Amino acid sequence: IYDYLRGKAEVDRLKNKLRQLGGAGQLELGIYEQEKMELEKLTEERNDLVKAEHDLINLIDEINKTAQNKFTETFEMIRQNFMAIFRELFMEGDESDLKLVIDPDNPDPLDAKIEIIAKPRGKRPQLIDLLSGGEKTLTAIALLFAIYRVKPSPFCILDEVDAPLDDANIDRFIKIIRKFAEETQFIIVTHNKRTMET
After folding, report:
1. 125 has which bridge partners?
2. 117 vs 41, 69, 98, 134, CA distance in Å?
């Protein structure tokens, strides 16, 4: 019996000690559980943000690729139109072209410079600035209508675009306007009598 009582006293003492520990441990366990839930919540939010960032980067890449393809396709159509309209405004055998000047450090065509090449017969200027005022104007008109042919609209307003042109070049300008007037109504602000007559 003595051993039994001694053992029971030891068990009671240990239970009491366990209760004392249990109160503090319960509080710490509760704090741990709360911190664990907060960590899981923050980890889930972080994972959602990382996934959203990844999805956004993929979307931006897809948009950039689509924009690059669309730009390259549209640029090529404008380039072909420019060469054809340039020949109509100048003479057969006159050369023109549009080139993308792509930086080797940045191969994105959306950031490339566009070089305009215009070489009327008998002239071989390296720069468009070396052309006469009339030749520059006709080149600009060719580029304008090359773009316009890709994206036409029902009407177009031109303000004094024919001002630098002499009579021969006015006739070329009028020829292009008549051609495009089949699909577009033009409002032309001009001081040139030949343009007004037309």
Report:
1. none
2. 61, 23, 6, 16
Q: What is the pLDDT of residues 128-183, one digit of tens each?
A: 777 788 888 888 999 999 998 998 888 899 999 988 888 888 988 999 999 998 88
**Distance between CA atoms of 157 and 187, rounded to whole angstroms?**
5
* Tens-place pLDDT, residues 115-126: 888 887 766 655
Q: Could you tell me which of 135, 101, 105 has the C-alpha nearest to residue 118?
A: 135
Quick one: CA torsion of 169, 171, 174, 175, rounded to 10 degrees? -110
How long, in residues, is the chain? 198
d(CA 115, CA 172): 24
Tell me 108's DSSP state.
Answer: -
